[in-house]
Amino acid sequence: MGSDDAPIEHKARGYKAAISNPHVSGPAKAHAQQELDRYDLEKTLGEGEKPVENVKSGLKAALSNPNNTEMGKMKARQKLESMGEEPEQPVD
Description:
By secondary structure, the protein is an all-alpha fold. The chain is built from four helices and no strands. Helix 1 runs antiparallel to helix 2 and helix 3 runs antiparallel to helix 4 (70-82). The radius of gyration is 20 Å and the shape is rod-shaped. Residues 1-33, 46-92 are annotated as: Disordered. This is Conidiation protein 6.
């Protein structure tokens, strides 16, 4: 298994170590930072995925939208809870 086959998390750990190592040259640290930024962007966006904060914002908007059905609001609330958020309880 070559370094190209390593999981992204393992590569990221190596780049973080290179950045904090005083024996690594400036250009190597810059390259490590570029790679970390690239991996962070890939991890955030993923293939076809939306940034998590945008999804949470949309779900919260669905809860307060008066045009949304009760079923839609319930599903949005459940999805937010599964993402670790505590959605506001409805005020009826």
